[in-house]
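Chapter review: from sequence to fold.
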Amino acid sequence: MTYLNIASAELMSVTNNSSDKKADTNRTDGEVFFSTSDVAVVATQLRAANTEYEALFSNLGTQIYSSIRRTASAADKYSITLQYITDAITAFGQSFPDNQKLACDKGCHHCCYFPIDTSQQVIDNLVIHLKSNYCEDEIATLKDALRENITARKAPLYRAPCPFLDSANACSIYHQRPLSCRWFSSPDAALCEQSISDGRAIQQHPIHTRIYQAASTALLADQKNATGSDQQLAFIPTLLAQL
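The token string follows.
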């Protein structure tokens, strides 16, 4: 992994400058560049670095939870969470750069067929947005579309186009879309399209995934304070029930 490569380079630099190396042979013809004792030293340091790296994600989740539990507003909870996610992705991208390219782009909508789960705060935030921006007739039309979508999702894959896709296959609630939608980070749009029919797993960006997992855990911990449950909610059925 990238962070291990970076850590290895830094640690080897320190090790090469140490003066307490012991040669593995009886060589007496010059400097010692490698010692088997270095392997154990570096392994110990890498394990410590790995522990600190893993703690970054759990600490992110704790930080988000600590911040959102202080407000009662679903919109504020979600906004705060999204800001932490944005800041974390930027920080990790700068410190742990990689070459993985994302295929996700405007107009790409294959992931919008997948069934998703989300937290209560995301539903509450979206309900507020819809009731503030949709008239009664539009809400009624949307509820019909949500019912049709639930019916259209058949076992075993439960794939169907999201009712929030517009005529250009763009998300009509883009800024309020659930965390699961933002989480998706595919390297190959063709694989996503194939997954609609065959259900194949899509590899996700590893660091982005860890960041969104931490955020989701924080939202669910906060949800438990309000509802007693830390279980994800089926997005479309739950939304329909609250409109």
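Two observations follow directly from the output. DSSP finds nine helices and two strands in the chain. The chain has one domain: 2-13+34-242.
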